[in-house]
Amino acid sequence: LALAQRLSGRPDDGLATLNQLLGVMPAEPMALFFKALFHLEAGEFRQAVDDLKELLPDSNLHVANLLLLGKACEGLGDTLTATELYRKALGRQWLDPLLGLDLRYSLGEALAQEGWTRDAEQEFQAVQRESADYLPLLERLGVKPGTSSPVASVSAKIPEVSAGEAPKPGESLVQSAPTPLPPLLPTTPGQWRLFSEEAGIDLLLNGQPVLIGREEGDLVLPQDTAVSYSHARLFMEDGTYWVEDLNSTNGTWVNRHRLSRKVELHRGDEVQAGNTRLRFL
Question: Which domains does the chain possess?
Fold first, then answer.
């Protein structure tokens, strides 16, 4: 009924119908999905965030809700949160293939907005390899969030924005995105690892905390003069790993963003201490 009302040009009635359903079945995921979709179409990004922020990716529908939540965050200008949401959702097992393409395309859009044009191009190219005639989720549904202009196609030109990465000592900003790390190594569920082919590091993690430093710690990097004596710490909390900077001189970076607080890690994240880049697997 709500969809019929929306298609007949009465989106407010559609929202009222969904709210009635949610009054009987709070947090019903399908109703929340379409309610957020209506808000996105109207450019009401804050309402979409409020609808979806409590949901966890326990099913493909919940992953789709995460996708809409990321779109709402983009509408609010928070592309960093959107990028983290897309990466987290892509890490799920048994992900619907088409939904996986939706997430990769959305990740590419968010990366392009942040200025990571090379990484964005890689995501768009991966989508094209999987499906040459792919259309993004919102375009398939005929939804254009907060604007009357059409959603960009996969072949659209990525905005030319200067990319950047963690600065090296003596430099304010590196102007090109770093060379991608090698493909992920298989990791046993319940285990994690820090890997760097360049630095010759393959450290297995079983839930123990890890101190990274130049002269002492569980992971010592004596050849990297940009690493502080005690630089960063990885630790387990609520069943997952987090990383925090220990007031290092050159900072700790996750996916090219300097940490100002502790950050949850997801498989595939890049952690940089000094000039050493590690992949969390």
Answer: 1-141 (1.25.40.10), 193-280 (2.60.200.20)
